[in-house]
Specification:
10 helices, DNA-binding, Arc Repressor Mutant, subunit A
């Protein structure tokens, strides 16, 4: 299936007519109808309910329309950004980051980099550490900010800092009133694990810390997003473990408790291509190291 097939499908769905869609696309109706039939055969589903009086999307067709619009909209943004950079001769510098780092020095780093050089456009992508490595090697980003160390011969890594981990518990939980909690006590609680995928990720780091302390967890719920995990904690589903900087969220329905174990820390790591010696990357690394030490 090619991109033009999605464009054809979207036109037919939005116009509600093969005739009107063909006119909009500046093609004849019979080839358009054949293309849609071929899409349906390739997918193995019917996308349109065809009657003599109306053309309606099936449930599968509605799903494809919604999802394909997201894809083509994102593609249009990429193409427009490409044109803009080409016309202005600006360089694009991509940063991938895990969400939990946004509660520390990373927002200040991004702000400084966005104003550091008018010839460079800084782009941001939220992604976990493993996808960051693939994006670095593919050239989609130039700097990754994550929390787990993954070995790759093409990638250089620097640990900027280590951050204490805290237990996040419901506000009225018995642990909420304590100044600190032993690991073995925390391990007895139902646990909300995040992120669920892709693995390995921060969740494996947390599980590894508990295993090293001789404990396994009763995971009752997995979440892909930090905010979702904290919301589930607030709802009373269980507890979780978060970097200390997450306290800046200042949620009134969740308490943060110190964990009585020095090993319960999380590093903040920057990753970049080993062969990248660009001046802007070096500037970004200098700024990141300086901000992390504050």
């Amino acid at each position: 299936m090619e991109l033009r097939h999605l464009r054809y499908f979207q036109a037919v769905a939005e116009e509600g007519s093969f005739t009107l869609a063909a006119a909009r696309l500046h093609i004849a109706q019979p080839p358009l109808s054949r293309q849609i039939r071929q899409m349906e055969e390739e997918l193995g589903v019917v996308l349109f309910e065809r009657t003599t009086r109306a053309l309606r999307l099936t449930e599968a067709g509605r799903f494809l329309l919604e999802q394909s619009r997201l894809l083509t909209a994102r593609l249009d943004e990429v193409l427009e950004g490409t044109r803009r950079l080409g016309q202005t001769q600006r360089r694009w510098f991509g940063i991938g980051f895990v969400p939990s780092t946004l509660y520390g020095f990373v927002p200040e780093l991004i702000r400084l980099l966005r104003s550091a050089d008018p010839r460079v456009e800084v782009g941001l992508m939220e992604m976990n550490t493993l996808p960051q490595l693939e994006a670095l090697k593919a050239g989609r980003i130039d700097l990754g900010i994550g929390r787990i160390l993954l070995d790759d011969p093409a990638i250089e890594r620097r640990v900027l800092m280590t951050e204490p981990l805290l237990a996040a518990v419901p506000l009225h939980h018995p642990l909420a009133g304590l100044g600190s909690v032993p690991v073995e006590r925390l391990a007895r609680e139902p646990f909300v694990l995040y992120p669920a995928r892709p693995r390995p990720n921060y969740a494996d780091h947390v599980l590894g810390l508990f295993r090293a302390a001789g404990h396994s967890l009763q995971v009752v719920q997995e979440a892909n997003e930090l905010q979702t995990a904290i919301g589930l904690v607030a709802a009373g589903l269980g507890v979780t473990v978060v970097p200390a900087s997450v306290q800046r969220l200042q949620r009134q329905d969740v308490a943060h408790v110190r964990i009585e174990a020095d090993a319960f820390v999380s590093p903040v790591i920057v990753s970049y291509r080993k062969d990248d010696a660009s001046a802007f990357l070096l500037r970004a690394l200098e700024l990141a190291e300086s901000l992390a030490k504050r």
